[in-house]
Amino acid sequence: MCQSALSTSKRRKFMNLPNVRKEPANPNPPFLFAATIFTSAFLLFQIQLLIGKQILPWYGGAAAVWNTCVVVFQALLLCGYSYSHWLVSRFDAKKQSRIHGSLIVVSMVILVLQFLISHRPILPAEALKPVGSTHPILSILLVLGSSVAVPFFVLSTTGPLVQSWFARLLPDTSPYQLYATSNAGSLLGLASYPFFLEWMFHLNMQAWIWSAGYLVFAAGILILIKRMLRSAPQADTQPLPIPDTQPVPWRRFALWVGLSACPSAMMLAATTQISSDVPPMPFLWMLPLVLYLLTLMLCFDNDRLFRRGVFYPLHFVAVMGLVLFNALVQSTGFQAVIGLYCLVVFTTGMIAHGELSRSKPPSNQLTFFYLAMATGGVLGGAFVGLVAPAVFQDVHEFRITLVVTFFLTAIAHYKDSRPWTSGRFWTLSAGFAVAALAISIRTMKVTPAWSRTNRLVDLAALSGALFIILLVFLRNSRHRWGQDGRAFFLCGAYSWFVAAAGVGFMAHFPMKMGHVVLTERNFFGVKRVVQDDKMVLMTHGSTLHGVQSLDASRRDQPTYYYSFDSGIGLLLRNFPRTGEQGLRVGVVGLGVGTLAAYGKTGDVFRFYEIDPQVLKLAQGQNGYFRFLQDSHAGLEFVEGDARISLEDEARKNLHQRFDVLILDAFSGDSVPMHLLTREALQVYRGHLRGTGSVIAVHISNRYINLKPVLTALAQSDHLEIAYLPARDSHWVLLAPGQAVLSLPVIKSATFNSFLDQKPVLWTDDYSNLLPLL
């Protein structure tokens, strides 16, 4: 994601261009060049948020959707840079213009064909929605590849290519201001989406506006190409000369790639952490990405803006604040969570990009350096978005990125004054790696959740040990390193201390009781099973998803959100039955299957669950939960997104005729908004038995107030509504008639004063979480 990261002020010198034209110096770049650069950067980053929001509901609202999208976009960006480098270095100006002009025309034709086929530009076709169990990452790759791959690739080539053309046509005019113009377009494209485009326009209109902007951009490029063909000097018909240079040592290339990968990985790792506590949405996707781009701007715009004495201590404060927050704070507002993670993203970007900027090569190796940065961005994103969910059972990528960042910045410091292969350096690094590994093993394999006291004791002991090691290291090396010894010691004291502390204390257990007996992870997040002498429970991320007693006499008793005095408990225990006919109950969201405990002989409970790991745990994997096995009702299971599955059943005329349809996908902090839209409500009503049926919605949530959404849905579809708050859960009942909601036990538990709140209606084409935070 570093389209505009490098300054272009040295580009003309690097290209060794002949001064075949003498024109008066122009303090401002021509409008057409600036407008084209600005528009391409604006569209490049805005389309990421637009497409991410479009396909987020297709995969259950999982935070990993955004990370996967970013990895794809980074790969396309790298392809765009490589194409531009190849085009500039291999062809003369006229051939460049013709080749790129053809690519622009092809992209416009694809955009038109997409509209003719799907009747809406740029947005993925509804036929690409995954139905049933599918591999989400491969599905997302297919969706993005068939919708935005070509226009995104074209946009990614614009920065380096247009700046090259600018240097050809106006050799006496500095193209430096195009760098600032491109960065301004990138940041405005990101900020304008959640605060303007998403807020003001429906999704289809957003796509039309973006497509119109792309046509404007394409027109600007074609005009520039025409100018290139007419105005390029006859002497400048050869490819740009690439001077003969010494090959870059692989160690230096590896350092460039590594320092570029760390901020990219931290951006996505922080997004994953934030989205485990706060629902994923474009506003939260934008913040880490904006900070990432901001650090690139600051570090590469002016070397004096990066001060080691400022940003290393600031990074220390940010990471330690996050460590102590996770270790000591049980719950707080989402502002503190977002603020701490964003500060870590910013400071990580500053120290990594700052050291990267200080290691810039001579201008004759600038293009190679530029590609190394793009490669690092792709590798960092792929590590968090693709590798980590498949390899790790827990969210370790955040801590790993911290440690690798500190290790590489220490190397960057060391290379200022010492050879690459220093025995003392590698000995000390090996000692640090052993200490960090020991702490990591304790964190990853630990069964009891650490108490506050134990975490503080461990933190104090680790701090003392590292301090002693660093004092010995400073004494032995100070006389050999001269003035750089103090800077290196400052870096080491902050970074190694924070790294080891971060490895040991970034583990966040939502429950401070019992033993973690099982941890599993997949695309949809981390699941933990925690057990003590009295109960066993499951958490998904930081949210509790079900509790079962280990006492045989109470094992089949519904607990927590689903207790007898909860809204859903009162509904299922008192729902009127006709004759001997059992109830047919649909449940969106399985958890540990607690609701099956309300099933009686003759009842049928049909569960819709998108996460295969949750399904296996609830069905008795390793024998932790037995609600489903002990239930007297008939049980049915549908794997996949509930909304898509219900729509597919309706198309096949398989209407389920539910007496009660329970939407239990909102108790966690990742809110699948597509389940609470006006169109979704119509799907649900099509599966109800009649006017005596009820839709029950579980709206317990730490950060999102969903009551205005339910109020708007009830008003838009003329449904009766009842709000049933309890100690551990909050439920809303929607019904076509008053029969069930008028039952005395339901009326006595109803508290409808929330109807005074301003309704917020969500549709498939428009939904926004910001007003509900």
If you had to describe this structure to a student in words, what would you say it looks like?
This protein has 773 residues and is an alpha/beta fold. The protein has 25 helices and 11 strands. It has helices spanning 11-15, 31-55, 64-90, 93-118, 136-147, 149-156, 158-169, 176-200, 203-231, 250-277, 282-301, 308-328, 334-358, 366-391, 397-414, 423-445, 452-481, 484-505, 567-574, 612-618, 627-630, 642-651, 678-686, 707-716, 744-749, and strands spanning 515-522, 525-531, 535-540, 543-549, 584-588, 604-609, 634-639, 660-663, 694-698, 720-725, 730-735. The protein has a 7-stranded mixed sheet, with helices on both faces. Helix 3 (64-90) crosses helix 6 and helix 3 (64-90) packs antiparallel against helix 14. The longest helix is centred in the middle third of the chain and has 30 residues, at 452-481. It is globular and about 90 Å long. The protein starts with 10 loop residues before the first helix and ends in a 24-residue tail after the last helix. 48% of the residues are buried. Residues 2-28, 234-244, 417-430, 436-458, 478-484 and 502-512 have low confidence and may be disordered.
